[in-house]
Amino acid sequence: MAERLTGKPVADAIKEELKGRVADLKAKGIVPKLGIVRVGARSDDLYYEGGAKKTCESIGMEYEVFEYPQDIDQESFEKAITEIGARKDIHGILMFSPLPKHLNERKIRSLIPVEKDVDSLTLGSAGKVFADDPTGFPPCTPTAVMEILKYYNIPLEGKRAVVLGRSLVVGKPAAILLLRENATVTICHSRTKNLPEVCREADILVAAVGRAKMVKEDYVKPGMVVIDVGINEDPDNPGKYCGDVDFEKVEPIVDKITPVPGGVGSVTTAVLCKHTVKACEILNGLA
Ligand SMILES: NC(=O)C1=CN([C@@H]2O[C@H](COP(=O)(O)OP(=O)(O)OC[C@H]3O[C@@H](n4cnc5c(N)ncnc54)[C@H](OP(=O)(O)O)[C@@H]3O)[C@@H](O)[C@H]2O)C=CC1
Ligand SMILES: Nc1nc(=O)c2c([nH]1)NC[C@@H]1CN(c3ccc(C(=O)N[C@@H](CCC(=O)O)C(=O)O)cc3)C=[N+]21
């Protein structure tokens, strides 16, 4: 039986630390505030939004939701984002992605001020992450992966890490963050040959493919640490969701594994708040 690396104690530790930093800012008359930008009402956006609001409230931070109709036009939305970006009282901006197809998402992302870009939606943030610049915020999800590895004291230096997935929001930044901790990193994707064999070489396997239960027993070996980033509809349990790892098959083999739900996803909103508090400190010349 593998040890379960649950997200809750990790998120709780992050929130505890943030409560102190938020109180220090408030003592100076500054209230950190997150702006949440949503177009339409997709269920996974609403789900994440609900979690983000709760986390903000629990640490004494403020938030404001900016909601727009599904059919908003490019010009109006560009104007709205520009105004939100200029607001002095808003320190972090989370814009849900993907946007509806008729909008030019690349252009809209570029209007978010880099110093408020707490989920790495701009090329400026992506560049900072790539260059290991400490003022750049990596996306919240791969940062949550790193917070879990750190909290549970998983050694990374010199270890073989395999990242399954190369998206801009999860796979690629996860690889960069693992590299920063001196892991030897392999990135796999849909064209990778002998995928199970490559994954079996890992000491740490990070699964971010968006395919329910794709990682099965032939992808793993004893001693391995498995981090499951996936959030998919569970094909075997309608209405429930599951990870990219077939938990029942993999858990008996490996050493440590994150559950879904209750793993990476549950740390993501704590990281979002951590980034917003840091953005607030930097914007006020306090960090
Ligand atoms: N926990 C959280 O907070 C969050 C979780 N997620 C979840 O993480 C997962 C990944 O998300 P995201 O990165 O956005 O997904 P994307 O669909 O953008 O990327 C998936 C990646 O997996 C690769 N891939 C897809 N199918 C296969 C396959 N059969 N074999 C090998 N590689 C494959 C793709 O390869 P290629 O590039 O070649 O196409 C691509 O690089 C999803 O389940 C998503 O729901 C996402 C965001 C937040
Ligand atoms: N720019 C952008 N960044 C995102 O990171 C982003 C996005 N857009 N659009 C929507 C998706 C969805 N998403 C989730 C993150 C966490 C949970 C989450 O909190 N999951 C917990 C919840 C547990 C529970 O309470 O049941 C868990 O998996 O344990 C869910 C969904 C981020 N997304």
List key phrases describing it:
alpha/beta; Rossmann fold; 2 domains; six-stranded parallel β-sheet; three-stranded parallel β-sheet; 10 helices; binds 5,10-Methenyltetrahydrofolate
Task: Compile the SSE list and pairings.
Elements: E1 3-4, H1 8-27, E2 33-39, H2 43-59, E3 62-68, H3 74-86, E4 92-95, H4 105-109, H5 123-130, H6 140-151, E5 160-164, H7 171-180, E6 184-188, H8 195-200, E7 204-207, E8 225-228, E9 232-233, E10 241-242, H9 247-250, E11 256-257, H10 264-283
Parallel strand pairs: 1-11, 2-3, 2-4, 5-6, 5-7, 7-8, 8-11
Antiparallel strand pairs: 9-10
Helix pairs in contact: 1-10, 2-10, 6-7, 6-10
The protein binds NADPH dihydro-nicotinamide-adenine-dinucleotide phosphate and 5,10-Methenyltetrahydrofolate (GUE).
NADPH dihydro-nicotinamide-adenine-dinucleotide phosphate (NDP) is lined by residues 141, 165-167, 169-171, 188-192, 195, 208-211, 229-232, 244, 264-265, 268.
Instruction: List the secondary-structure elements in sequence, H or E.
Output: EHEHEHEHHHEHEHEEEEHEH
- Count of DSSP H/I helices: 10
- Global morphology: globular
**What composes the largest sheet?**
6 strands, parallel
**N→C terminal distance:** 43 Å
Oligomer: single chain
Q: Count the strands?
A: 11
Overview of the molecule:
- This protein is an alpha/beta fold and about 290 residues long.
- It has 2 domains: about 30-115, Rossmann fold; about 140-265, Rossmann fold (3-Layer(aba) Sandwich).
- The chain has 10 helices and 11 strands.
- Strands 1-11-8-7-5-6 form a 6-stranded parallel β-sheet. Strands 3-2-4 form a 3-stranded parallel β-sheet, sandwiched between helices. Strands 9-10 form a two-stranded antiparallel sheet.
- Helix 1 (about 10-25) runs parallel beside helix 10.
- The longest helix is centred in the first third of the chain and has 20 residues, at about 10-25.
- The radius of gyration is 19 Å and the shape is globular.
- The relative contact order is 0.17.
- The model has no long low-confidence stretch (mean pLDDT about 95).
- It binds NADPH dihydro-nicotinamide-adenine-dinucleotide phosphate and 5,10-Methenyltetrahydrofolate.
